[in-house]
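Protein folds are increasingly written down as discrete tokens. With that in mind, we are printing a sequence and the tokens encoding its fold.
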Amino acid sequence: MPRVVYSGENALENIKTIILENKVKKLALFTDKGIESTGLLNYPVKLVEQTGIEVIILNDLPPEPTYEQAQKLVDQFKESGADFIMAVGGGSVMDTAKLASVLATDQYSIRELLDKPELAKKCVKTLMIPTTAGTGAEATPNAIVAVPEKQLKVGIVNDNMIADYVILDAVMIKNLPRKIAAATGVDALAHAIECFTSNKANPFSDIFALEALDMILNNIISACDNPEDMKAKNKMLIASFYAGIAITASGTTAVHALSYPLGGKYHIAHGVSNAILLAPVMRFNEPVCRKKFAVVYDRCVHENKVCETVEEKSAFIIKRLEEIVKHLDIPTSLSVFGVPASDLDALVDAGMQVTRLLNNNMRKVTPEDARAIYQEIF
């Protein structure tokens, strides 16, 4: 887990404490131009400048970067001579910053980490400040990059990439556009329910996955619909972090496995890809995850508890997942993104390559199963 986590109102003020206690001389701030254009960087940068140290902003990063694009930013970081990394952004920004923290050395590149993630060694300390709730990237040892030659997204996983510091301040997500808040919120929802129903689930991951599910299922609608509901936004930010811890302790399953080709080839936003697949995969998993879904019902439904049997509770939770995605106006069909039905075979082939996550799925996914799931979302 990250060594130090600050949360709540005015949590950003701890930036100065972190810089001073680490005797930072030059700070590299990883972000992207979209975040910079919203003015979200102004306050964190002001706090850094108040310490009197030099800051360099690295912002040349697209939303779903390839490993070459991430490497370009890492190379800029290496040339800067910075001795501390602060990331302000969503998953792609934080993942690239994590990669930079283990790539200050010339001994290996991102390309080599794709094949041998065990090479990674922490060289520079990191502070993660998420601007979505979210990917949970601030909590995980994972970095996800697109690999164009495979038309796939690939996860590089190494404990050395876990953040040293995390700041969860809801002011950073207050003005997030509803469309982005919805997609990233459902991503966190997928993390939580996948980790709870993973083959690698354990008592530790269950603590965080269930708490995340409770907070997300009961706050995501208000957090997305009501810009002023800071209480709901703060709970979503903490829930996203908890779901990230659950990923580290357990692991996502077939939702994420089958969504990677959608991002890798068609550049569909990661949270949207997961939202499209969430209910279909959970319906597929229901026969073997029924008791788990019933536990989610017992823990997360606080009013009007009308379900009594395990079957009823399980059906309720899957229906609730569908209702949330529908309410948040997230597309549930690949046709919206112009994905041709003729690509079905290629999607199945690419999805079945993600064995790291498919192996976590409690119900074995065959190529025929993957085909049926993809057909459901065309």
Remarks:
- The first helix runs from residue 14 to 21.
- The chain has a mean pLDDT of 96.
- The radius of gyration is 20 Å.
